[in-house]
Amino acid sequence: MPTKKIYQILKDREERLTPRRRAIIETLSKNGPWSVDLILPELKKRGLPANKTTVYRELNFLNNLGLINELHLPGRKKYYEIQTEHHHHLICSKCKKIKQLKLPAILCKMLADVTYINNCTITNHHLEFSGLCNRCNK
Ligand SMILES: [Zn+2]
Ligand SMILES: [Zn+2]
């Protein structure tokens, strides 16, 4: 989702776009995902220092509006990214970075079959991979 669209949604909902909120959205729109610990120095760089509680509050606010995504990564602190099309993550065992990973669409469609096999309703799935990222895989 482009940042412009996020600003428009906030405007439509008559939510305020404070400089700090804008800075957080701009940060998240750069290559992520981002944890609060990574976001804090970015805010400081922009002359908008904040504490963790404030940033968490902002992230929860954006998450509740469905504008950002909270990642489900086992054994990791919370990471966030701008809401984008469905994708997965690779956790690099060397540089420890989390990279976005696209799977062949058919794989995700096959996962939807779980619904039929179990007679339940699956609305989403979170599938993470570990290994070497494109940079470390050299
Ligand atoms: Zn790596
Ligand atoms: Zn998927």
Automatic annotation (TrEMBL):
Q: What family name appears in the similarity comment?
A: Belongs to the Fur family.
According to the UniProt entry, its GO molecular function terms are: DNA-binding transcription factor activity; transcription cis-regulatory region binding; zinc ion binding
Enumerate the Gene3D superfamilies for this protein: 3.30.1490.190, Winged helix-like DNA-binding domain superfamily/Winged helix DNA-binding domain (1.10.10.10)
Q: Which cofactor does it need?
A: Zn(2+); Mn(2+); Fe(2+)
Taxonomically, which superkingdom? Bacteria
Protein residues bound to Fe cation: H86, H125
- For this entry, the protein name equals Transcriptional repressor
Where, in this chain's numbering, is Zn(2+) bound?
C92, C95, C133, C136
